[in-house]
Amino acid sequence: MHIRHVRNELLGALQTVVGVVERRQTLPILSNVFLEARDAELVVRATDLEIEMEVSTPVQNLKPGKVTAPARKLYDILRGLSEGAEVSFEIAEEGRMLVRSGKSRFTLATLGAEEFPSLAGIQADTQVTLTHKALRSLIERVSFAMAQQDVRYYLNGMLLHIGPQWVRAVATDGHRLAMSELALETGVKEDLQIILPRKAVLELARLLDGGDAEVTLSIGGGQIQVQLLNLRITSKLIDGRFPDYERVIPDSQDRRVLGQREKVRAALSRAAILSNEKFRGVRLQLEPDLLRIQTQNPEREEAEEEVEVELDGEPMEIGFNVTYLLDALDAMKTENFVLELRGPDASGLLFEAGESTHSKYVVMPMRL
Amino acid sequence: MSPNPPRKIIHLDMDAYYASVEQRDDPALRGRPVVVAWRGARSVVCAASYEARRYGVRSAMPAVRAERLCPEAVFVPPDFVRYRAVSRAVREILARHSELIEPLSLDEAYVDVSTNKLGLATATEVAQAMRAAIREELQLTASAGVAPNKFLAKIASDWRKPDGLFVIRPEQVERFLEPLPVARIPGVGKVMEQRLKELGISTVGELRQWPAAALLERFGRYGQRLHELARGIDEHPVQPDRPTQSISAEDTFATDVTLAETEDSLRRLAEKVWAASRRETRVARTVVLKLKTAQFQVLTRSQTGSTPPASCEALTATALALRERIEDHGQRYRLVGVGLSNFREPEELPQPGLF
């Protein structure tokens, strides 16, 4: 293998896939990146056995061939070279790749390309097409609620529930839940539920642009594959049963608070400073035209905020984890929001006021 | 009898610990009666050297009384930073033989040496090695008890104090316990001793005559424990780094107060204890109120609720309710304390789940 190209393009390709490479590897080859020069392209691929990312970039192909080289080191080298510099990768001898640019030379240890694991070869049973914008919106509105390293492994990801004319993204850590729904022109005949692992969700969120270009999700054999121009992401799906989310989204509540999102968000984040660091509790007192927000920490420091709101229903008091409220308000886009409540022991429902995107945020109360 | 091979437990107790550290570090104090106590009319003795004990000075007695008993005593304020450092050094010595160390306080610890790191033949040899190292490296003396369980090891360490070693072998347990006064059993205080005496029980041998059911009926769960201890049975393991057992705070008043006057103090203590308890990941199920009368009689009342106190207010309310259970004969009190104990994993988190 011998290729030549400008540093920025090569760096861009490495940058796209290097996030997948885990810092601590059980299998040495997984800290490497797969490189293959074929036709007028260089294919760059990285995997952690759960997710695989492959990007191709046009290069000057002097000699076809393939190899694997240390991902981080190669990335750091490219980053350190000057912008616009011309760089070449060349298999110099057995087990060595030479990286050259101007007066810089680096000899990297390589491992055989045949050993590099691959997830590819997906048998797609289902294909769903969305715009970049739509898929990105779904992820942005719910991904914050995904669990992290929860023993309930099926919560460490995002559910995509695809129906005949809609698609829903759902994430929950067991205490709060976020759901966002969009209309689909062509969905699937029978409802389909898949759970994308956390890492795949975060990579997708990073790589999707907000445009109207289409993106196709191919699903089958416990895997999902997403093709984005010259980039292909393949990920294993989480093999588990997502909780029945529809059951926990309350439908009719007897108290409705209408508030200005930014005002309430700011008041909550100020009050949060003096909440208990561990439990993050905040007390909400609802009065006809007023929301009173109170926090107190173990050092007996206290915060109190008052914000004007419209309350439809009886006054009440309820406790919440302030982080959950802030996350939900942050994920919204509208000027006003609605908080619906039934009682101090029942979950609260938040959503955007007068909006058509159908995102819902369910938050369990906290005993204070 | 226990199906497992007998365990080998050492209870190691430093002799007159704080006073000995003071005497070691200041040659002028050696051979003289030393009392470690804060200055102040109402302070109590933290530790007394053996020279001072000869005059009847004991730990926890008012410093004023100690002064009266032994006017020549040298009073030294406690220096816990130094005592803690020495404790760490002691612990390092113990750890050469076993990692299974359960410190009870700065000056005593249980060590399970059923197997020991250096491969010494007997637990007695291990205890001797520990005591020798403490003497040579730290110039302090310790007493040790060696026995098949914690209960007996603790009694044994006291048997040849100071600077002694006493071993209770499994086959000697019954003979050893037979004549022992019941007051030596942990948990048997003055009240329990009296109740047992009314049943004609004053020695462990006499206690052993009673069937478990009869003790259980009279003393509840503690009756079951008494029945076992009387037979030298104690399965409690040595627990390295044991988690918090209790959190408490006490106030000694500058002048004795009436029961009603304890309220301000009690509220403040409840707040202090509550704040400290919030640093625990577990929750306490038992609230304890402690009062000490002007005559040094200690009264405690406790409540174990089905749900732990959920707030500082709830804790305060419980403490005040417990105070109602003190029979007020118009006596005065010198100390009030509030405590939380019986820590458990929270069965219910403050944040309930969705599913």
TrEMBL record, chain A:
SMART domains: POL3Bc. GO terms for molecular function: 3'-5' exonuclease activity; DNA binding; DNA-directed DNA polymerase activity. Residues 1-119 form the DNA polymerase III beta sliding clamp N-terminal domain. Its main location: cytoplasm. Residues 247-367 form the DNA polymerase III beta sliding clamp C-terminal domain. CDD domains: beta_clamp. It is found in: Cytoplasm. It holds the Pfam family DNA_pol3_beta_2. GO terms for cellular component: cytoplasm; DNA polymerase III complex. It comes from the Bacteria. One of its GO terms (biological process) is DNA strand elongation involved in DNA replication. Coiled coil: none annotated. SUPFAM superfamilies: DNA clamp. Residues 130-244 form the DNA polymerase III beta sliding clamp central domain. InterPro entries: DNA_clamp_sf (IPR046938), DNA_polIII_beta (IPR001001), DNA_polIII_beta_C (IPR022635), DNA_polIII_beta_cen (IPR022637), DNA_polIII_beta_N (IPR022634). Keywords: Cytoplasm, DNA replication, DNA-binding, DNA-directed DNA polymerase, Nucleotidyltransferase, Transferase. Signal peptide: none annotated. Forms a ring-shaped head-to-tail homodimer around DNA. Belongs to the beta sliding clamp family. Confers DNA tethering and processivity to DNA polymerases and other proteins. Acts as a clamp, forming a ring around DNA (a reaction catalyzed by the clamp-loading complex) which diffuses in an ATP-independent manner freely and bidirectionally along dsDNA. Initially characterized for its ability to contact the catalytic subunit of DNA polymerase III (Pol III), a complex, multichain enzyme responsible for most of the replicative synthesis in bacteria; Pol III exhibits 3'-5' exonuclease proofreading activity. This is Beta sliding clamp. It comes from Stagnimonas aquatica.
TrEMBL record, chain B:
One of its GO terms (biological process) is DNA-templated DNA replication. Pfam families: IMS, IMS_C, IMS_HHH_1. It is found in: Cytoplasm. InterPro entries: DNA/RNA_pol_sf, DNA_pol_Y-fam_lit_finger_sf, DNA_pol_Y-fam_little_finger, DNA_polymerase-Y, DNApol_IV, IMS_HHH_1, Rev_trsase/Diguanyl_cyclase, UmuC. Keywords: Cytoplasm, DNA damage, DNA repair, DNA replication, DNA-binding, DNA-directed DNA polymerase, Magnesium, Metal-binding, Mutator protein, Nucleotidyltransferase, Transferase. GO terms for molecular function: damaged DNA binding; DNA-directed DNA polymerase activity; magnesium ion binding. Its cofactor is Mg(2+). Mg(2+) binds at residues 13, 107. The record marks 18 as: Substrate discrimination. Residues 9-189 form the UmuC domain. Binds 2 magnesium ions per subunit. It catalyses: DNA(n) + a 2'-deoxyribonucleoside 5'-triphosphate = DNA(n+1) + diphosphate. CDD domains: PolY_Pol_IV_kappa. GO terms for cellular component: cytosol. The active site is at residue 108. Its EC number is 2.7.7.7. Monomer. Belongs to the DNA polymerase type-Y family. Poorly processive, error-prone DNA polymerase involved in untargeted mutagenesis. Copies undamaged DNA at stalled replication forks, which arise in vivo from mismatched or misaligned primer ends. These misaligned primers can be extended by PolIV. Exhibits no 3'-5' exonuclease (proofreading) activity. May be involved in translesional synthesis, in conjunction with the beta clamp from PolIII. This is DNA polymerase IV. It comes from Stagnimonas aquatica. The lineage of its organism: Bacteria, Pseudomonadati, Pseudomonadota, Gammaproteobacteria, Nevskiales.
